[in-house]
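Sanity check

After download, print the first record. It should look like this:
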Amino acid sequence: MPFTFSHPAAVVPFAKTRLSLSALVVGSMSPDFIYFVYLKPNGESTHTLSGIFLYCLPAGLLVLFIYHLLVKMPLQSILPCRAPQHGFDLSRPFTLQSMGRLALVAFSVVIGAFTHLAWDAFTHEDGWVLKFLPFLNVTVFDLGFDKVPLTRILHHFSSVAGALGLIAWTRKWAAGLPGKSRSGQNDPEPLFGAKIRTAMLWVSVSVAAGLLYAWTQAHPIQNYDEFRQMMVQALVATGSTFFSITLLYCIFWHMAKRRAPSR
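Expected structure tokens:
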């Protein structure tokens, strides 16, 4: 599978349409959400056309509302740079003013999920596209202990290309936004450094927990295939840990904000 967080690159062409960008992004990752629940890649049922409507749509809407109601504002508070007042203001309310708006958001989630399945069809070694394009499953490298098919190369290449494309698109988008930050400047250097260190600690704890969990599940490792499976499980467990820490932070952030005296 391509890296889950590279999948939003597929919805960039829809960014300037009437569709909800946040719903597109969530939808593009929704078939993989079940991985982070079971702590392993176990999403055969979610990577199907029926799974889009039976799982991806409700799960995507749930995650979307959690993001807008719980995660968005705390996320803004820990960004190294304050969001501009125009266009990229993360604190803008997310509302469903009518059934038409709800339908548009739901449709956006579904479109995002469709892009996920289309991408996976070319990069899964058992993808349905291989029935029509069998050359995608041809072995490109024979390492002795493993045979690397073209689909796996496409998997790794598209994951990296998608991530780099998202970074480039985000930088270009943010640079073109009008207006300055609310204070007219970025965070002072000490605060900026503190946020970077916090983010690094956040990621380090997640990676350590993910590797530890995967090791306890896979040990003892007897061959290369089991090692590959362990690393995939470590990646999934790392994501689950990161999400859990993020949600805990957001909950405490909202609790602290409610208790803070009004000015």
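If your output differs, re-run the checksum step. Summary of this record's structure: The two ends are 50 Å apart (CA to CA).
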